[in-house]
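U., I forgot to send this yesterday:
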Amino acid sequence: MTAQRPTTLAQLRNSGWQSKSVKHELRDNYLKALQSGDPLFPGIVGYDDTVIPEISIAVLAAHDMLFLGEKGQAKSRLMRSLVRFLDEYVPYLDLPGCPIHEDPFAPITRAAKEYVANTPADQVRIAWWPRADRYAERLAPGTKFADVIGEIDPAKLAQGTSMSAEDALHFGLIPRMHRGIFAMNEIPELDELIQVGLFNILEERDVQIRGYPIQFDLDVLILFSANPATFNRSGKVIPQLKDRIGSLIQTHYPRERALGIEIMEQEAGADAAGVFVPYFMKEIIEQISVSARKSKYVDQASGVSARFSLANYRTMLASARHRGVRLGESPAVPRISDLGHLPTSSLGKLELDLMGSHQMGERQVLEAIIADAIRTVFEEYVEAHGLDEIADVFSKGVKIEVGDMLPSAEYAKRLKRVPKAWEKAFEVNAADSDAVRASCVEFVLAGLYAGDRISRATRHGRMTYET
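Result:
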């Protein structure tokens, strides 16, 4: 409990507490987690055999780290997750006006050194810094030198403080995170002057502001993130900074579609309450992202974030829930026609390849990607269930109209007019529910259309399938 923690320097010395560097502290706690078999990074899916082992080695090597990967590959989440390996609390000198959390046994600022030297140990006040507050991050675009490193404080100069004195400085985020973790996102976007300041801190641990070197024994773990396309571009990151980053951690998108679905379901959480989602609909949503990552129309250097799948999944759930409420159907079941609302959650998230897309707009590219995803998933089910026989139904002049606001019971009525071959469609997701069957029917229709087996006409949100 907080009340039992030492509150003076004398009590802290008698308690047996030992001072550690932040990297030493991180390494010790990480080793304990490894030995106990606890999950190292809860909520991180698909990295157990690739990324996490590399992070483990970097932590044990006491390295600053660069997380290199495309957008939506959990770089920021991984960096923030390292906080859990810090001590729950660490003591610091409770010195009013001191800009950083000083180690009581190893102060680095002049004010703190004088306070400890000139004050009896039983009167030196101690406070405790929680682990959650020992992490700070910054996005590189728009960042100034004063934000992360520091600046001369004009108010202190006006009071007569010498410009070359430590007291004249206003500390930025990195000095203020002494004994903590600082993360810089999108490092290639940093101004070169800031990059120079960073590699001085990484190697020499000194702070140079406006030409005045202030020697601090800064104790901070510094993390970076970057996209490979910009990080590897000549001139974006100065070589001296690259050379001083201890470990490069390469991230990646889910290697299997099932892992992408697991991430999608995990992040959606309670958003799926009250909605039954057939697995093939989850597969299609994730396959849309997979297809986009392979599309010649999309700029692959930018990547397609896992947030793309999540946003589309939530849109599909919302469309199904909207229909369920309007038509009184419970549980709500998503259909292919619900994907007609995906432009609202997709447009703006894909960066087009200007050479590959030519005159195609983003909406056209999205439609092509969705069609490819449906065809890919459908072909897997065709092979498993022999659904190709159903295309013969349309050679007899049968037309089927569907839509996102068509009651599920209407599908059952329309199925009475077609041969029993349609029953094969329900092998996709065996269920007695009209809503699930309606979803299966739309999946089969959309799959046949994506494979150019039947035609489709769209009007006012309704789709008519025929030969």
